[in-house]
Amino acid sequence: MLKAREFDVKDVVTEPNPGSNPSDDNMIEVLEDHGDDPVEMELASAIWALNEDEQIDLVALAWLGRGDGGIDEWDDLRAQAADAHNNRTAAYLLGLPLLPDYLEDALDQFGETSTDYEASRQ
């Protein structure tokens, strides 16, 4: 969740030719959405490392948090996510501008927090 938030704050590239020393441009490229962004690569790798059921759950959680259904419709949301599943899950999820907020809201509906969830994954 923290990496998703880190990725979500990225902005458009304003300094296409940064100085040779990061301090020359006030480290602004850290906040810009470059094609070779290590945060994006790390998130995509983490999503690809999930098994199919976990990827489906993650998409369904994003949809739940986005308001596409309520907690009482979880089984339907998950079934829809399973039907839509393909090999572009990482690209799809990283394309959702408010992904960390959606996931946080969904976990909240289950009575969990992102801290609880991340602790259970370790």
From TrEMBL:
Region named Disordered: 1-26
Record's keyword terms, sorted: Plasmid
InterPro entries: DUF3775 (IPR022254)
Biased composition (Basic and acidic residues): 1-13
Protein name according to UniProt: DUF3775 domain-containing protein
Organism lineage: Bacteria, Pseudomonadati, Pseudomonadota, Alphaproteobacteria, Hyphomicrobiales
